[in-house]
Here is the input.
Amino acid sequence: MKDKKVKTYIVEYNMVYIMILSIVLLIIPVLMTWAYYRFTSASFNFDLDNLSGVVSYTLLFVLMILWMVLHEIIHGIAYQVNGAKKENITFGVALEKGIFYCKCGEFINKKNIIISLLSPFILIGVITLIIGYLINSFTLIFLSIVNISGAAGDLAMFGFFIKQDKDLRFKELGDSTTFCLKTKDDLSNKKFITVKIKKVVTDEKEIEEEKEKKVNITKASWIVMIVLILLILLDFIFTLIG
Here is the structure.
């Protein structure tokens, strides 16, 4: 039997499924945390209690943003450690879509994909949540739960990729909500919960992209960030006046 021909597919996330999974991944660790402190003698430590309300909430918000950035940096490191070239790794923010992303602009193998997908979830989700329980840190527990919920797309993709042939090759497109696959497996008529097969690529030029900046932030993201900063400053000012 002759070897099957490798085909290239353009694929996109099923965002409805991922949003539902994100909610589930938020509820589960919240319930775990409630159960842990309800049925053990551990004492919950609100580490930011010694700060004023506005300062503590602002600091928590900033830490949450930095945690999301760290999530993407871990993706990037994992891509490179497993063979991707540094110059093909870019980062971005598209707050209008509710995403931070790390994009691998070259084709990588299945092992690289899976390790990269799971690394942030395990390192600053599961492990830091356990550490948060051990040291009773509200901040660390909160950040870990946010990261676990935010890893819904990663876990959905892990579930998809783990079932694919080992010959599979992967490359991200656009803001990384769309990607392309090279595989001998015929995906044309298959249905998946986590992704949608948009088309079979007939011309490789369809998946070629111009060289990008290392960090890409959309105009809408800048506007959102400026508005949030102004709101925080106004809240701080009103608190001082009051």
